[in-house]
Amino acid sequence: MTRSGDMKPAVEPSPLQSLLTDPILLPGSTHLPSLQTLAIQVQHDLRYQHSWTDLRLHFRSPLTNEPLPRPLLSGLPPQRLYIHPDEQVALLKTADQQRKASKEKGANKPLEVTAEPEHEWILPTRLNEKWTLHRLSDVFGGIGMVPPAAETAATEDMRPANPWRTTKRVVLATVDPDSTVVYYIVHDGVVKPRQN
Amino acid sequence: MATTSGTVTEPFPISRVLNRFLLFDVDAISHARRAHNICGVLIGTIPNLSQQNVFLGVPLELMPEEARVLVEEGHAYIVDDVDVHQRGFTEMSREVRLQFVREMDEQGMQKAVENRNRLEENSRQALKKKGLNIKDKIAGKSSSPDPRAVSGGSVEGNPAKEGKEEEHGVGEDGEALFDQPRATVVPPPAKKLDKHYITPATSYPPLSAPSPPSPAFSPPSDLNLPTVPRSYPLFRYMHSHGYFSMPGLRFGCHYSIYPGDPLRFHSHFLATGMGWDEEFELLDIVGGGRLGTGVKKAYLIGGEDISLKGTSGEILGEADEKDAETVRPFCIEWAGF
């Protein structure tokens, strides 16, 4: 059974496949193409699987303008990704006060905890990579507490500094060869765990 | 039988036996836990119920890291227990030894008398309850507190019963288990009160306690320090920040780290220490992070930045080296999506 050359392939390449195999011209990047495609793959996953917005690629450190060890992403999750346990306590307290206040007025509102989503750093990795503490610390060395705002001034105003955010953190995105992506938060320092 | 002082003077001794670091003194154990955040693991077991590890007692085994932290900070010193014992007992003078044996004999006799009195009191109570006062006379006679008087005197009571009591008494104490109770087979007409043979539970009443090394030896050279695994810098870092550590085997890590005493707090971190340039699999991070989040903890990895260590050692000198934070920890939690 031979196949003539002009036949259509049995399976169309997936949008992700064509996104990655398209010649990528990422201006300002000196990183290996494999790392660039990795970042784009994670960006794709976050945007379409997890509804993240404002996703941007970073090739240079916002602090020193040196090239980063690898391209990083920043983005805004649909809900708050991480609430520090102390912040959670504070949020619950204010929510409880609000509920009590509304009760006195006669309304019977449930407890509403509101936490605005925050921009996060994302570190794309592959599962078969080996990492060291040294490399992890280099990644943290190149980033600030919060990803820099986009060029538009409007986002700057929409990003109030969270006083609870006192240690750097990145979202470690690990891509499996089968294109599953798992996300873990890595804090730079000793941070007590959330009581989920 | 241990003479407890109630207080611990620092530095206190840590016994090294077969390269395990042990604390035998209850006061030292509680002191290490209270003042120095050192928990250790109690390993003294009941020989035939070794699975009952809820009820373990002294000695306390310290991790090499724990022993090293205590020694480095000058709270304790290492004693090679085998050496001290061999030297101590071979060089012990005859007078001291005889004195000690005599003391033990006296204690044993005292114990035997106490035991006998208690048994007789018990049997009198039991008989009284049943309204049988027949043996009052006998009991009164044999409960004389001076054992020497009893040893010569005869007991006219039920010999079989007496024998049973004696056997029971010996077995209960557990220290003369292998002295076959003579009374079981043919109870002798005259009963001599046997003293209990006491096994001394401490070796520092007979031996004089080992003295701490002279200040000339401190700071301790690396040769005297316990050898520690590569995860030690992380342990030292967390310990210096007031955390308590326990072995982390049950979570597949080096230490489970508590924010306070493990009796009061749940552990916060599953910690794995590694070298600065030691490669690790991302799968380990994912696994550790997932397990940690599943049990409401964070997975902590950390190690010592060798470059920082080198510079701080040269510039700041040895005393300040510990203050310069050369250890970088990272906490990993599941992102939740």
Compile the SSE list and pairings.
The complex is a heterodimer of chains A (196) and B (337).
Chain A: H1 15-21, H2 33-49, E1 53-60, E2 67-76, H3 85-104, E3 120-126, E4 130-131, H4 133-141, H5 153-157, E5 169-175, E6 181-188
Parallel strand pairs in A: 3-5
Antiparallel strand pairs in A: 1-2, 2-3, 5-6
Chain B: E1 12-17, E2 20-23, H1 26-36, E3 41-44, E4 57-62, H2 64-72, E5 76-80, H3 81-90, H4 94-130, H5 136-142, H6 147-152, H7 159-173, H8 232-240, E6 244-247, E7 255-258, E8 269-273, E9 280-281, H9 282-294, E10 298-304, H10 306-321, E11 327-334
Parallel strand pairs in B: 1-5, 8-10
Antiparallel strand pairs in B: 1-2, 2-4, 3-4, 6-7, 7-8, 10-11
Can you tell me about this structure?
The complex is a heterodimer of chains A (about 200) and B (about 325). With about 200 residues, chain A is α+β, with helices and mostly antiparallel strands. Chain A has two domains: about 15-20 and about 30-80 and about 115-185, 3-Layer(aba) Sandwich (Trna Endonuclease, Chain: A, domain 1), CATH 3.40.1350; about 85-115, no CATH class. Chain A has five helices and six strands. Chain A has helices at about 15-20, 35-50, 85-105, 135-140, 155; strands at about 55-60, 65-75, 120-125, 130, 170-175, 180-190. In chain A, strands 1-2-3-5-6 form a five-stranded mixed sheet, sandwiched between helices. The N and C termini of chain A lie far apart (about 60 Å). By secondary structure, chain B is α+β, with helices and mostly antiparallel strands. Chain B has three domains: about 1-90 and about 215-220, MutS, DNA mismatch repair protein, domain I, CATH 3.40.1170; about 95-185, no CATH class; about 230-335, 3-Layer(aba) Sandwich (Trna Endonuclease, Chain: A, domain 1), CATH 3.40.1350. Chain B has helices at about 25-35, 65-70, 80-90, 95-130, 135-140, 145-150, 160-175, 230-240, 280-295, 305-320, and strands at about 10-15, 20-25, 40-45, 55-60, 75-80, 245, 255-260, 270-275, 280, 300-305, 325-335. In chain B, the strands form two sheets. A five-stranded mixed sheet of chain B has the order 3-4-2-1-5. A five-stranded mixed sheet of chain B has the order 6-7-8-10-11. Chain B starts with 11 loop residues before the first strand and ends with a strand. Classes of the chains: A alpha+beta (about 200), B alpha+beta (about 325). At the A-B interface, β4, α4, β5 and β6 of A face β9, α9, β10 and β11 of B. β4 (about 130) of chain A pairs antiparallel with β9 (about 280) of chain B, so a sheet runs across the interface.
